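Q: Make up one entry.
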Amino acid sequence: MKHVERILIVLLTAAAVFFFIQWQNVKKSYVAPSEYVMKDKIRSYAVRHGLPTSFLRDVFPEEVVYYDNGEIVFEPVNKDLNLHNYDWALLNWEGNQVTYPETYQGVDVSSFSQDIDWYAVKEAGIHFAMVRVGYRGYTQGSLNVDDYFHQNAKGCNDAGVKLGAYFFSQAISVPEAIEEASFVISLLKDYKVDYPVCFDMEELGENARANNLTKEEVTKITIAFCNTIKEAGYTPMIYANSHWIFSKLDLEQVKNIDKWYAQYASEPYYPYEMTMWQYTESGSVPGISNAADRNISFIDY
C-alpha cells in the first residue's frame, strides 16, 4: 500500500510540474488570466495531495508556504513587515560550515553538549555562543537551571567567546512568561552577556503543557518574556523554526524583536528580517565532543 502511495505522490508531483511548465510558457506570452488559472490548479493539487513545500515555494515566491497541522498553508508575503535583503547566492558551504560575507560564526549549547573546552572553541573561530540557561518542565511546569549553564557561561567569559543565552519555555500564561524571564535575569547577573537573551518555545510530545496554546496566546507570552528581558538591559530575541514562526506567532506584533531562525537547509526560507540562522544540528567544532548546533549571526551584538 505504501508503495502505491509513493507512486501516486510521484505522479501528482509530475502533474504539478507539468502545470508549472505550462504556466511558465503562458507567462512568457503574458496572458494574465491563464497564469492565475494555472497557479490555482497547482495550489489545489498541493492542498489535496500534499506536494513537497520545496517545489511549491519556488512556484509561489510571492507567498509563504508551510505546513500547519498536516495541511499546506499559503499566505501572501506581508509587505508591512521588514523584508530581508540577504543574497543567498553568497552563502558558501565548506563541509558542515556555512559562511556569508560579514557574518559571525556561533554555536548553541546545553547540558546535552556536556563538558566543553571553550579555549579550543574560540581558537576554532567561534565568535559567540548561545548557552541554555534552563527550561520549564513540560508536564509539571517547574523551573530548572541547565546543569552546565554556569560552567558554560564562565567558560565563554574566560575564553573570550561572546555570550548569549536562551531559555526553553513551556509557559502557558503571561505571568509564567514573566516568571521565566525573571528567573533567567537572576542567573545571568554574574556574567558578561553581549549577545541576545532568547525565548525558545517549541511543540513537544504528547501532553506537553504548551502544545495547545493559540497563536494569540503564544504571541502574548513571547512578548511578555521579551519585554521583561529588555527592561533588564538585555537584547531580547525569539528562536523559531518555519512551522512555529509562521503558525504560532503574530509576526506584526513581534516585528521589532530580533529573530533566531532555525532551518537545516542549503538556505533559509524566511522572507523577513532575521539576525541569526541556526543552519545545522550536526556540526563539528574542536572543543565540543558531541555534534554541535551551528549558527551564523548577521550582526555583531
User: Anything to note?
Assistant: The chain has two domains: 2-76, 88-297. The longest helix spans residues 2-28. Residues 197 and 265 are 25 Å apart (CA to CA). The first strand starts at residue 63 and ends at 68.
